[in-house]
Design goal:
The chain is α+β, with helices and mostly antiparallel strands and about 700 residues long. Helices cover about 25% and strands about 15% of the residues. The chain has 15 helices and 21 strands. The protein has helices spanning about 65-75, 80-90, 105-115, 255-270, 310-325, 330-350, 375-390, 420-425, 440-445, 515-530, 550-555, 570-580, 595-605, 625-635, 645-660; strands at about 155-165, 170-175, 185, 195-205, 205-220, 300, 300-305, 355-360, 365, 400, 405-410, 485, 490-495, 500-505, 540-545, 560-565, 585-590, 610-615, 635-640, 665-675, 685-690. The strands form 6 sheets. It has a 7-stranded mixed sheet with strand order 17-16-15-18-19-21-20, with helices on both faces. Helix 13 runs parallel beside helix 14 and helix 14 (about 625-635) crosses helix 15. It is globular. It binds S-adenosylmethionine (SAM). S-adenosylmethionine (SAM) binds near residues 546, 564, 566 and 567. InterPro entries: MeTrfase_TrmA_AS, MeTrfase_TrmA_CS, NA-bd_OB-fold, SAM-dependent_MTases_sf, TRAM_dom, tRNA_(uracil-5-)_MeTrfase, U5_MeTrfase_fam.
């Protein structure tokens, strides 16, 4: 990243919230290109169930009809709980003061900005006028502060970054004197030790969001943040870094990225496990990714159709044109002129349509031509995919999310994976027309609990349970291995983990960093190898099994394995993958873990003390009922793999507490760590092993 970043403002985004189990609709989390959730950054914290966000008072505005709804719409969204903890620890507070009861240090800023100055959290565009920016040269050797707190909204100022949020954004405090911070400023793409000129864009409860304009200086050794962060802009591998919401850490040495992820896990356990510190073991070093660029096997660039091209408006324009053409000849010339101008507008809109990912500070979609964290096959396919969209742009109604997925090429025909079909698959599917902004399902947790609609060659039995994929189970990979890019959701993708071949539909879940799958599955295998007697009689239940990643790579170590997965298509592919790899000790069950776990374990009658359970849930974590069933079944070991360390901390804490209730000996945390599934981003993939105390 250059030291001068031009990033004018931040769009709002939802947030990641671990909170309680049950009915709470958790915001989706993390860290893909839309960076929708974990970004509490310039784009703000978002939805969440933070009790401190509401002032706890009876809301009298309810009586005031229209006025009330106007005021309400101005209320800032509640603070994401993960961000809340980061703010509290940075400000040195135990809780965020209520607006009506600010601590004396926060009186000035707190009372004026929250909640009385209603427009304060509106964007600078629609909100209060910014105070005149001070000329850059005036700032030298002096820390700028607003003349009064009322002038502070949406101004530019210099801030010193003192910490990082779990979402990878810098936090500065105000006033700058660190003994008495009263307010926090959150800025994306900044690091502890940076002095940053930034434009404040939005205020929230005791914190504001700002967009960095220029890194004035960087002195990590002056920072008290526990993880060293040494800005090295020569490491940045992408021209969009600093504007694209996808990556946060490209300017950091890789070891420091790994240390930050470990730190996020440490904080998650401290803040969300609700366990005494002696029950939380030392968090291990983060397992690195063999590849730090060109690793990502799936990306989903998207676009929104410009207004001028959207069907309704276009139709109206055409209609208007026709009406004018029928009018008297005096009006005809003008009508034709207008029509020509409309057409001209449409053409330029067509040419300018950005196709890419969410911008970090600028609202809307950023046009992305290359994404260096994606695999080469995907990078090679991007120009054609983008060109196809532009060529067919008038066939879309509103916009679309494209799918670009890396696949190995099988030697022999295997349904959608034969060479000819792979060539077909490489064409961009022009008919997918979904709202732009719908991002990677797995990263946003959008496939949680739902059965995605897919159009693979399927045949359901009368009970609706069996799906015949019509794929050959004789799958051999081309040698040397070849990669292609698949862009049709229903087409079959092929992947290899060690000696095991996996196939799955391009649109369904599979881990998105192929280079990490060896270390990830080895980690799970190492947990089992600890007990030599397990080789005699041992069982594995793989809850949330997808297309069988853990069940099938670990099957040889167990007498029998079984997988449970909510997506019937993934289950169909898991069964297919067992056949492809000639694995005969694996069975798979379609349904929600919380509905099936009891039934499946009872019918299999595997003894808990000979059974290992792998749990790899979506971002929202496990259902509370499921955790209760697990404690009842009492497996000897639980390996929890998680794409959201905050919900993992919550679930693991609950398992430990519930199993130890009433003085019984239950589970203890045996090992805790993270694995780097997504280098350059803040995404932290957690690994936790629980064993029964004996
Ligand atoms: C993070 S993925 C892990 C998949 C697999 N373990 C892998 O690594 O490929 C989570 C999986 O859980 C599935 N899922 C979501 N909710 C579920 C539920 N309630 N019960 C069972 N599976 C569920 C999703 O369809 C998805 O395949």
């Amino acid at each position: 990243m250059s030291s001068s970043i031009s990033v004018p403002r931040s769009p709002p985004s939802p947030a990641s919230v671990p909170t309680a189990h049950k009915k709470v609709k958790l915001a989706t989390i993390d860290g893909d290109f839309a960076e929708p959730v974990q970004q509490a950054s310039g784009s703000g914290s978002g939805s969440g169930s933070n009790p401190t966000a509401a002032d706890g008072k009876v809301d009298n505005r309810k009586k005031n009809g229209k006025k009330e709804s106007k005021q309400r719409s101005r209320r800032a969204p509640p603070i994401d709980e993960v961000l809340l903890h980061d703010l509290l620890s940075t400000l040195g507070w135990s809780e965020l003061p209520k607006p009506s009861d600010p601590p004396s240090e926060a009186q000035t800023l707190g009372q004026r900005l929250w909640p009385k100055t209603a427009p304060a959290w509106k964007s600078s565009r629609g909100g209060k006028k910014a105070v005149e920016p001070v000329a850059a040269e005036e700032n030298e050797n002096k820390v700028e502060q607003p003349a009064s707190s009322n002038d502070w909204g949406f101004t530019e100022a210099e801030f010193t970054v003192v910490a990082l949020t779990s979402h990878g954004d810098g936090i500065a405090v105000y006033p700058v004197a660190p003994e008495k911070p009263q307010w926090a400023i959150i800025m994306p793409f900044t690091l502890p030790g940076d002095v940053v000129r930034a434009k404040v864009t939005r205020h929230q409860h005791y914190h504001s969001f700002a967009d960095p304009l220029k890194i004035i200086s960087s002195n990590p050794s002056a920072s008290t943040f526990p993880i060293q962060t040494t800005r090295d802009d020569s490491l940045v591998g992408c021209k969009y870094f600093g504007t694209c919401a996808g990556c946060q850490y490209q300017s950091l040495p890789y070891e420091q990225q790994l240390a930050l992820k470990r730190h996020v896990l440490v904080k998650a356990m401290k803040n969300f496990a609700n366990l005494p510190s002696e029950q939380i073991p030392e968090v291990k070093e983060t397992i690195p990714s063999p590849k730090q660029y060109n690793y990502r096997t799936k990306i989903t660039p998207h676009f929104e159709l410009p207004k001028a091209l959207q069907t309704g408006k276009k139709g109206r324009q055409a209609l208007n044109g026709a009406k004018k053409n029928n009018a008297a000849s005096a009006a005809e010339a003008q009508a034709q002129e207008e029509q020509a101008s409309n057409e001209q507008n449409e053409i330029s809109a067509e040419l300018d349509t950005p196709i890419g990912f969410e911008g970090k500070c600028k609202p809307g979609i950023l046009d992305i031509e290359v994404c260096p964290i994606a695999t080469e096959a995907i990078m090679n396919a991007m120009p054609a995919a983008r060109a196809a969209v532009k060529q067919n742009i008038r066939s879309y109604k509103r916009g679309a999310t494209l799918l670009l997925r890396d696949s190995l090429v099988p030697e022999v025909s295997a349904g959608g994976s034969s060479e000819t079909e792979q060539k077909e698959a490489e064409k961009v599917d022009p008919v997918v027309d979904v709202p732009a902004g719908v991002m990677d399902e797995e990263e946003q947790g959008m496939n949680e609990g739902s059965t995605p609609e897919v159009a693979i060659a399927t045949r359901r039995s009368s009970k609706g349970k069996t799906i015949d994929l019509g794929l050959s189970t004789d799958v051999k990979l081309k040698s040397p291995e070849e990669h292609v890019c698949v862009s049709v959701h229903s087409h079959t993708v092929t992947e290899r983990v060690g000696d095991i071949i996996f196939q799955f539909p391009a649109g369904s879940f599979f881990q998105n960093n192929a280079s990490i799958l060896g270390p990830l599955t080895s980690f799970a295998r190492d947990q089992i190898d600890k007990d030599s007697d397990e080789k005699k009689e041992s069982y594995l239940v793989d809850a949330y099994c997808g297309s069988g990643l853990f069940s099938l790579t670990l099957a040889e170590h167990f007498t029998q394995v079984c997988g449970i997965e909510i997506d019937p298509n993934s289950i169909a592919y898991a069964r297919h993958n067992a056949l492809v790899n000639k694995i005969s000790n694996a069975t798979f069950h379609a349904g929600a873990s919380e509905s099936l776990f009891d039934t499946v374990t009872q019918s299999l009658a595997w003894p808990g003390d000979k059974t290992t359970l792998i749990v790899d849930p979506p971002r929202k974590g496990c259902d509370e009922g499921f955790l209760g069933q697990v404690v009842k079944f009492n497996p000897k070991r639980i390996v929890y793999v998680s794409c959201n360390v905050h919900t993992m901390a919550r679930d693991v804490g609950q398992l430990v507490r519930n199993s130890n209730a009433g003085g019984a000996k239950g589970y203890k945390i045996d090992s805790l760590g993270a694995i780097d599934l997504f280098p350059q981003t803040h995404h932290t993939e957690g690994l936790c092993v629980l064993t029964r105390e004996v």
